[in-house]
Design a protein that fits this description.
Length: 221
Amino acid sequence: MTTATALIARAEATLDRYQHALGSEDTDAARALHRDLLALLPAARVLLAERDDLARRLEVARRDPLTGLPARAAFTTAAEHMLATVAAPAVLMVDLVDFKAVNDTHGHEAGDAVLAATGRRLTGWAGAAAVVGRLGGDEFAAVLDTDPVALPGRLAALRRALEQPVDHHGRQLTVGASLGAATLTDHPTRDLSALLHAADLAMYADKGRGRRGRRRTFTAA
């Protein structure tokens, strides 16, 4: 029970006691006030229910319904807070390779399965303290507190995880992953837009290397 709901329940109980206590000597004004307060309480309950429903709908709107991850606006808010508070933040961009082929060949349900698996794998890799979001389409982002020296090895492990086949109704769906990361070591700023841009450039450089058959983990320089 919320604090406001508890207060309303207490007020109803109090008014009920006063209802029995009011006698013939009480003024008409006191009786009218008592009656009006009783009438207001149901309206207050309705307003509280509407507020709670709005809060639920806003929370749903802030999350991607397919992966359960924060959508772009919610990710931005949480990521900016993390950038301002952690010691060694890294900003990561992830884009799936050949995802369109999965959609075109096997259908959108298969593509959804790949996206949901990507969200789970990225979240598991980043850890509970990280901020992970789906920015749209097959593009994901994360902000985590990590040792920049260890980051290339961690990204290599993430690539291996993301490129594991996804089982969908007995069919093995495989996609690649382009990764790009930006850290304060190479980009001494805590501005989210700047770090996302740097990570995005690194991701597209990684994508180009993959097309030429020389894919490797890439961080922004």
